[in-house]
Design a protein that fits this description.
The complex is a heterodimer of chains A (about 575) and B (about 280). Chain A folds into four domains: about 190 residues, Pyruvate-ferredoxin oxidoreductase, PFOR, domain III (Pyruvate-ferredoxin Oxidoreductase, domain 3), CATH 3.40.920.10; about 180 residues, Rossmann fold (3-Layer(aba) Sandwich); about 60 residues, no CATH class; about 110 residues, Rossmann fold (3-Layer(aba) Sandwich), CATH 3.40.50.920. Chain A contains 20 helices and 21 strands. An eight-stranded mixed beta sheet of chain A has the order 6-5-4-1-3-2-14-7, sandwiched between helices. Chain A has a seven-stranded mixed beta sheet with strand order 9-8-10-11-13-12-19, with helices on both faces. In chain A, helix 17 links the parallel strand 17 and strand 18. In chain A, helix 3 packs across helix 4, helix 3 crosses helix 6 and helix 4 packs across helix 6. Chain A is globular. The relative contact order of chain A is 0.09. Chain B is an alpha/beta fold. Chain B has one domain: Thiamin diphosphate (ThDP)-binding fold, Pyr/PP domains (Rossmann fold), CATH 3.40.50.970. Chain B has an eight-stranded mixed beta sheet with strand order 2-1-3-4-6-5-8-7, with helices on both faces. In chain B, helix 9 links the parallel strand 7 and strand 8. In chain B, helix 1 packs across helix 7. Chain B is globular and about 70 Å long. The chains are: A alpha/beta (about 575), B alpha/beta (about 280). Chains A and B meet through strand 7, helix 7, strand 8, helix 9 and helix 10 of A and strand 2, helix 3, helix 5 and helix 10 of B. The complex binds thiamine diphosphate and iron/sulfur cluster. Iron/sulfur cluster binds next to loops of chain B. Thiamine diphosphate binds next to helix 4 of chain B.
Chain lengths: ~575, ~280
């Protein structure tokens, strides 16, 4: 993580850590830098230690490291907890009226009377803004840009609040200028590019909207709640209904009902909610109803450590729900992929008339980064085979001439979809059914219909993009991973003779290309945020290849590039 | 249209004499009376003997999972509120497995009809006790007799906020038909509990049992208090009829997004991208 600047702010939950952190990254992004940020917090609304990390660089950044150049410590605990992360030459901003930290060798301490200056500016709640003003000076940043961010972030608030925050930033800036030397030129304004600063959840919400989602029925759960917050806030601008169901079973059932009636629908949840939904996944499977399910993993089992990250549910998500039906699972690894793969999930769901699971985790959902502008124009909408307007009921078998043949047998297994409307009777059924959707248990019908369904995705593994191999074609070691480990792995291999086989289409599995790539690898190393090496197990099932070297972490924290570098060094 | 026009070619597979026949007859007659378009009328069923009705009735339908027809129907209605959506559910389906959905659908006052085939038994799975079977009911799951009192669906519907609450008897088709017609016309959540004898498993609540006890209510109450008193069985008499009907905006009618057109008719791209993405710059 060379040439990057690491920022952290820590304090008690409820002290505005998250919003101040986001103001900082927006400030950096607007000043023309690439950024990555995320928060760590316990499952509490007030109290408990919260921290916000950000990494800023003139080059693209994929994650944060576990070291800090500038720390805003709102209490002594923050200094104690993070002292080992402070880089040589790092600095700590603190309020001398609040506590007096013990000195640490090689670390500068900058006392700034945050509260007093905030009161001068108008309100004690503006203390963090005072600190950000000081940060702007210490990092060579432009105060005007910081003020423009404050204007936008507080746009919905009263004028006095915006003016007060401007004043607070100025006071912090001036105070630092009068007392300290800058830390370096880390945030000097550069030409800013049209980049977005966005979190995985918001990218998922936007990807769904770009794909034309119409109904989102989502029950709150960390780490996906901000998907529903975004959709609920922008219902009108997005042209959708956000519906808050009584539970996840209702959520998925309503999404299925809506898809049957003809709209694209979405649900999102974490492991617990997914468990409740699983019977209905299978309902979508047999009724051939398109559906997109966002599954944001967190560290379990059961409630586990609910605000921390994990990749513990891969095997579960791949196989949940009874019976055999075609299953599709995509796993985006960053915000940009969240957007495009979610949009793609809607096309796959409608083309193959089956549920598609999009598997992410807390470290993707709640982390933010700068990415190239997301364009809805780059999202194609493919709705698959639809009822022909020329369809005449008389074309039906004599027996049920007025019923739409929703499950007519077809070579590719994909029947035309029609939605109920005047003059068109559409019947779907969770019991095994014949082409009209009427229950039928005969051997022939059962085989025909089950084989029809299973055939649908036969060609899909040929169509999916080959997995990416990042880094040099020839490498001492090939890393294998998926999901949110992508960022730390990309960061880690920057400095080593290693490459990275990254998988984001997990079912159907691109077995041939994976086998081809791994056949050429000198050594392989599996990296996952779980105990069992679940991708490794799935990969072995699909290709017969076993990856022996493993770096597994299941403490709820994401990987840091340093840990990966160390492991690679130990095997080459 | 005639009753025949609402029938598929599938022969009903209910046991001879089953109370579901009367209910089905009343439903078809009502569709005839209302000239319901068979494509635009959607029957959403759960799993149980009641759910078989989807196969015999020639209208659009969704046979879902045990306990889940209500939330499926909610989704259908949100996507296309021009459809007439009728939930067909059992006492087990609606009040056991799906009780949570029933309470919340009533509370939100979705524009749906919820038709409960109440046979006080889990009939499809061979007659185990259900939430509505009475104290002492003997079955394979309650060999010593049920030790829990019965739940009253109409009372629960009233407490939960349904705006139309009624009870009919499948042995009195014309009366049930009147109720159904009013329920379908009602804009909001309409509960129709149908006393539906299961002639195979429920030896307590038989046709005769009901015939001797039912008492017709003259007209609906506009206040819940009156309706609550009216729906309760008193001195061994079981009231039937429309207990309560109240005009209140349905859930769907409160949504601006679908005031002009149902969701299904709206363009997939009727969004304002700049407004949606403004805060990310
Ligand atoms: C999740 C689930 N649990 C259990 C069952 C088994 N099951 C099918 S129907 C039924 C009870 C049906 O009772 P009711 O809803 O009253 O319908 P009836 O058969 O009496 O019409 C049960 C327990 C199931 N299909 N799904
Ligand atoms: S078991 Fe009972 S409810 Fe089911 S069809 Fe037979 S009589 Fe009707």
């Amino acid at each position: 993580m060379k040439n990057s600047f690491h920022f952290k702010i820590g304090g008690q939950a409820g002290e505005g850590i998250m919003s101040s952190g986001q103001i900082f990254t927006k400030f950096a992004a607007r000043s023309g830098y690439w950024t990555f940020d995320f928060v760590e917090y316990p499952s509490l609304v007030r109290g408990g230690h919260n921290t916000f990390y950000a990494t800023v660089s003139a080059e693209e950044v994929f994650c944060t490291g576990n070291h800090v150049d500038l720390l805003i410590a709102l209490n002594q605990e923050t200094v104690t907890l993070h002292r080992d992360e402070l880089n040589p030459g790092a600095g700590v901003i603190f309020d001398p009226d609040s506590f007096q930290p013990e000195s640490i060798r090689g670390v500068k301490f900058w006392p700034v009377p945050l509260l007093k200056l905030a009161q001068t500016a108008g309100h004690r709640l503006m203390a963090n803004t005072v600190a950000l003003g000081a940060v702007a000076y210490l990092t060579g940043g432009n105060l005007k840009i910081l003020k423009s961010v404050l204007t936008d972030v507080f746009a919905s608030k009263k004028k006095e609040i915006i003016a007060g925050n401007h004043r607070a930033a100025e006071l912090g800036y001036e105070f630092a200028k009068s007392k300290f030397l800058p830390l370096g030129d880390f945030l000097g304004a550069k030409k800013s590019l049209p980049r977005m600063l966005i979190g995985g959840n918001e990218a998922i919400a936007l990807g769904s909207i770009a794909a034309g989602v119409k109904l989102a029925s989502i029950y709150p759960m960390t780490p996906i709640s901000s998907i529903l917050h975004f959709l609920a806030r922008f219902e009108k601008e997005a042209g959708i209904i956000y519906f808050q169901p009584e539970d996840e079973i209702a959520g998925i059932s309503s999404a299925i009902g809506a898809a049957f009636a003809g709209v694209r629908s979405l649900v999102a949840t974490s492991g617990g909610g997914f468990a409740l939904m699983s019977e209905s996944l299978s309902l979508a499977g047999i009724t051939e109803t398109p559906l997109v399910v966002i599954f944001g993993q967190r560290a379990g089992p059961a409630t586990g450590i609910p605000t921390w990250t994990a990749q513990e549910d891969l095997l579960y998500a791949l196989t949940a729900a009874q019976g055999e039906y075609p299953r599709i699972l995509l796993a985006p690894g960053d915000a940009e992929e969240c957007f495009y793969l979610t949009a793609e999930a809607f096309n796959l769901a409608e083309t193959y008339q089956t549920p598609v699971v999009v598997l992410v985790d807390k470290f993707i959902c709640e982390a933010h980064r700068t990415i190239p502008r997301l364009a809805f124009g780059r999202v194609d909408i493919k709705r698959g085979k639809m009822a022909l307007s020329s369809f005449s009921p008389a074309a039906n078998k004599k027996s049920e001439r007025e019923i739409f043949p929703r499950y007519r047998l077809a070579d590719d297994g994909i029947s035309r979809r029609g939605f109920p409307r005047e003059g068109r009777i559409v019947k779907v059924n969770s019991d095994e059914h014949n082409e009209f959707g009427l229950s039928e248990e005969s051997i022939k019908n059962r085989n025909d219909q089950l084989e029809k369904r299973m055939k649908k995705t036969a060609g899909l593994s040929q169509l999916i993009p080959a997995p990416s191999l990042y880094g040099p074609a020839q490498a001492e070691v090939t890393l294998v991973g998926w999901g949110s480990t992508k960022g730390p792995i990309l960061e880690a291999i920057k400095e080593l003779k290693a490459n990275f086989l990254y998988l984001n289409w997990l079912r159907p599995f691109p077995a041939q290309s994976v086998s081809r790539i791994l056949a050429k690898a000198k050594k392989t190393l599996l990296i996952e945020n779980n105990y069992q090496g679940q991708l490794g197990q799935w990969l072995k099932m699909q290709t017969g290849i076993e990856i022996k070297n493993k770096l597994l972490k299941y403490d709820g924290r994401q990987f840091y590039p340093e840990e990966i570098v160390k492991k690679i060094r130990s095997i080459i | 249209m005639t009753v025949k026009d609402y029938e598929t070619k599938v022969t009903p597979n209910w046991c001879p004499g089953c109370g579901n026949f009367g209910l089905w007859q009343a439903l078809k007659q009502t569709l005839v009376d209302l000239r319901a378009d068979p494509g635009e009328t959607v029957l959403v069923a759960g799993i149980g003997c009641h759910g078989h009705m989807n196969n015999f009735t020639k209208i659009s339908s969704f046979e879902g999972l045990h306990g889940r027809p209500i939330p499926i129907a909610v989704g259908i209605k949100l996507a296309n509120h021009r459809l007439q959506v009728i939930v067909s559910t059992g006492d087990g389906d609606c009040l056991g497995e799906g009780g949570n959905h029933f309470v919340h659908a009533c509370r939100r006052n979705h524009d749906l009809v919820v038709l409960i085939h109440n046979n006080s038994s889990y009939s499809l799975t061979t007659g185990q006790a259900s939430p509505t079977s009475s104290l002492g009911y003997q079955s394979k799951s309650t060999p010593e007799g049920k030790k829990v009192e019965a739940l009253d669906p109409a009372l629960l519907a009233l407490a939960s906020g349904a705006t139309f609450v009624s009870r009919g008897f499948s042995g009195d088709v014309p009366h049930l038909q009147e109720i159904l017609k009013a329920a379908i016309k009602h804009r909001g959540l309409a509960v129709v509990e149908v006393l539906q004898p299961c002639v195979v498993f429920n030896k307590d609540q038989t046709f005769d049992y009901y015939r001797q006890r039912i008492k017709k209510l003259a007209r609906p109450y506009l206040k819940r208090g009156g309706a609550i008193r009216a729906c309760l069985a008193k001195n061994g008499r079981i009231p039937i009829g429309i207990f309560y009907q109240q005009k209140k905006p349905s859930f769907e009618s409160r949504l601006d997004q679908i005031r002009k057109k149902p969701l299904v008719r709206q363009s997939l791209r009727n969004f304002d991208w700049d407004k949606l993405t403004g805060e990310f710059y």
